[in-house]
């Protein structure tokens, strides 16, 4: 899935786009005009510190959403059986396995359905 830009601050998207030749062990390089368009879109729609998952950022520019302090806090109650050992999820970066509206950047708890476990109730 393509992550909604609001999940990272602009400085993170800038760093990610500057290293597309080794984007998490894949070459994701774009032609110059495509690169410029994608970067402009990401920066224009990036999240702001203090909003959503971008709380407690302390000026950092993480490259992985799963490294955000708020992401870790929101997912700390989930067991490995529910996530990384779950064949329906496999990875914590597979947001749309559990979150039903990831394309719309909606991650409300009442819209979570963990494969094999059902709806999430905190």
User: How many distinct domains?
Assistant: 2
Read across the widest sheet, the strand sequence of neighbours is 1-2
Q: Find the structural class using helix and strand composition.
A: mainly alpha
List how many beta strands DSSP finds: 2
Low-confidence stretches are: none
Span of the ends, CA to CA: 26 Å
Tally the helices: what do you get? 3
The description of the largest β-sheet is: 2 strands, antiparallel
The shape is globular
Q: Taking Cα atoms only, what radius of gyration do you get, to the nearest Å?
A: 15 Å
Mean pLDDT: 91
Portion in beta strands? under 5%
Helix amount:
10-25%
N-to-C SSE series?
A: HHHEE
Description of the structure:
It is globular and about 45 Å long. Helix content is 24%, strand content 3%. It folds into 2 domains: 1-58, no CATH class; 77-122, no CATH class. It has a two-stranded antiparallel sheet. Strand 1 and strand 2 (118-119) form a beta hairpin. It has 122 residues and is mainly alpha-helical. Helix 1 (10-18) packs antiparallel against helix 2 (32-44).
Write the layout of secondary structure elements.
Elements: H1 10-18, H2 32-44, H3 69-75, E1 113-114, E2 118-119
Helix pairs in contact: 1-2
């Amino acid at each position: 899935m393509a992550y909604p830009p609001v999940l990272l601050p602009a400085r993170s998207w800038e760093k990610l786009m500057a290293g597309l030749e080794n984007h998490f062990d894949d070459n994701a390089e774009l032609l110059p005009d495509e690169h410029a368009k994608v970067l402009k879109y990401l920066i224009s729609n990036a999240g702001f510190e203090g909003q959503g998952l971008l709380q407690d950022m302390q000026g950092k520019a993480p490259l992985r959403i799963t490294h955000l302090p708020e992401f870790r806090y929101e997912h700390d109650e989930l067991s490995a059986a529910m996530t990384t050992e779950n064949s329906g999820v496999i990875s914590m970066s597979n947001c749309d396995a559990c979150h039903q509206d990831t394309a719309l950047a909606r991650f409300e708890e009442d819209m979570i359905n963990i494969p094999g476990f059902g709806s999430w109730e905190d």
